Amino acid sequence: xxxxQEHEGKALFKIAKMPIPQGAVxxxxxxxxxxxxxxxxxxxxxxxxWAGGRGKAGGVKFADTPEEAEKIAATLLGATxxxxxxxxxxxxEKLDIAKEYYAGIIVNAQATARCxxxxxxxxxxxxxxxxxxxxxxLMNVDVIRGFKIYDALNLANKVKVxxxxxxxxxxxIFGLYETFKNYGARLIEINPMVITKDxxxxxxxxxxxxxxxxxxxxxxxxxxxxxxxxxxxxxxxKIAWWVEEKDLRGTCYFAEMNNxxxxxxxxxxxxxxxxxxxxxxxVDGLNKQGLxxxxxxxxxGNPPASKVYRAAKLVxxxxxxxxxxxxxxMAANQEQWHHAHGVVKALREELPKRPGFPVLLLLAGNKExxxxxxxxxxxxxxxxxxxxYGGERVYDTVGLAAEMKEMVxxxxxERKG
Amino acid sequence: xxxxxxxxxxVVVQGITGREGSMRAKFMRxxxxxxxxxxxxxxxxxxxxxxxxxxxxxxAVKNHGLFDVSVTFxxxxxxxxxxxxxxxxxxxxIVMPVERVPLYDILxxxxxxxxxxxxxxxxxxxxxxxxxxGALGWLGGSVEFANKHFVPGHVGVISRSGGQSGTLPYxxxxxxxxxxxxxxxxxxPVTGMSFSDVLPLFQDDPDTDAMAIFGEMGGxxxxxxxxLVKSGKFTKPIIIYVSGAWAPAGMxxxxxSAIVERGSGSTQDKITRLREAGIIVVDNPNxxxxxxxxxxxxxxxxxx
Lengths: 417, 304
What we know:
- By secondary structure, chain A is an alpha+beta fold.
- Chain A is 34% helix and 27% strand.
- Chain A has helices at residues 6-15, 29-39, 66-76, 149-158, 166-182, 235-246, 276-288, 305-316, 337-350, 368-379, 397-416; strands spanning 3-4, 23-26, 43-47, 60-63, 80-81, 84-85, 89-93, 97-108, 115-121, 136-140, 185-196, 201-203, 206-210, 251-256, 267-273, 291-292, 295-300, 323-332, 358-365, 385-389.
- In chain A, strands 1, 8, 9, 10, 11, 12 and 13 form a 7-stranded antiparallel sheet that branches. In chain A, strands 16-15-18-19-20 form a 5-stranded parallel sheet, with helices on both faces.
- Chain B folds into 2 domains: 11-121, NAD(P)-binding Rossmann-like Domain (Rossmann fold, 3-Layer(aba) Sandwich); 151-297, Rossmann fold, CATH 3.40.50.261.
- In chain B, the strands form 2 sheets. In chain B, strands 3-4-2-1-5-6-7 form a 7-stranded mixed sheet, with helices on both faces.
- In chain B, helix 3 (79-88) packs parallel to helix 4 and helix 8 (221-230) runs parallel beside helix 9.
- The two termini of chain B are 16 Å apart.
- Chain B contains 10 helices and 14 strands.
């Protein structure tokens, strides 16, 4: 996932010469102690995970001495917070907070905007969604003109930042925009921006999501899976990204997901969709028949057969699946024979290990006749339940899901008996 | 639709010597599109399917005069430069069948396009197809497929999904109707044209009686279309499907634009707003043919 952890984000702030609290990352309790010793005053210890609301979840603790820092780090490291394993903590000087502000930048895709929006508020420390609109200063940025330091001053002025620290605040907002632009972020926030009792202004915490398509320009960020998701990437997600990264022809998208059925669940279908829109249609149909889909896979945009093959293998490598569906709920513009070849190769490797396995293949569109012929010829000697359909069923999500369910029930019964 | 494509619209293809560029240039040309020249730096003097190739857009202009359209087959990280080059050569209509474009690049090219008074379709759009006239991009797939399944008629089609922009004409033809123009707005998180930019073109198009639209969760295309209808700026009947009812928030579904964030862009919310505006929302796209038949009965849709 292209969301950075707090310490990674702060490292980027440092490059932009934005003030951050003194501190460092620890992966062991001993390291936490050493960092606290170096800081030489009370510290805060924060778990480094991809999740907001760490404080409420018990992931932010204070220590007065290096010994205490070591003890606390020992309890946090290796713990699971908000479902995520804590592998590192950030040890920082404890700030004497007088006031908390907020600064953030998002992209507004609406037809009337299509530009970055810089937001600033003197109500920091909470989710910006819960701040009243009249307490937030906003600016739509013309990217051709750019964002100037006096734009930042104007924003701070609008919500009446005291003149004692308005210049420092503006400098932080300006640095935030530079970071947003230079690293191709799609969202960036300083929350809270801390005003200390002795009048310093620092980035207390940060949130940065790098745009997936910009990751390629920033190998130094070490992002393993450039795909937005609410959870951290699984092993299969990582392999899928490797497939994508190595061959940019067409798309191989694969993500494991938590898909649950309301009511009785009759089986789990390894799902291989085609084209984002059509792929989504198919999941809807399967869910309505009480079939769970553990992954969202999509090969589209004219990928070569080798890429389709790898996607199909990923789908098959999920444990506990009771069937495989190639959900081509679209009359594709791309030549479909690449898909046919890729899928046949995967089926010829996977099905001999799974006698009677339910397989439903839907493929429609450009070169459909030839592609269906490849599927039929390539699978005719395999011992499995294989059904192959073309354009006449292209939107029959419900009917095809019902056939899938019927095959899954037969298959499960056969395996029990 | 004349504003997007006619028989005489002059087209240049940027990136014409690449795998996609050469294949799609041939496709466009065989479908009747007036592809006059191609551009690939360092490949000037070559030909692709009889189309002359130049090193720069300026070179192409010197030899052929101004172009009406550029279609760009350029890798995502290089697209911005190609689009700036086209805009600087006074091209006012750019079709971008390119995915994985860095977001800030998109913002810059969209802003520069606006400054230059140009229309930018995409990025991530497979293009436009007007049956009987031609295509920009690769919407329609192959000549054989496009000629068979993109039947001329009076339903305007817009889609947020590339695959579905080929599928709607297919099912519309099976139901005995035809399409006026088919357009894919593109899958990137920000696009140069939204539903609300495209609908007014269909409003003014005498060949279009009604719209069939494939929508998605995330973004604001559907909400903006609903506003346009509410304000009386679009008056033709619209039938729309919005996918992703089951999609969890915060997860991206292969399309960069299909992500539900910060409580906005959910399918349910879109459907509510569309219905409030009096737009016909279907639960499955296979209901679209039936709805078209109803419009025909009401005298709102011509068959041929």
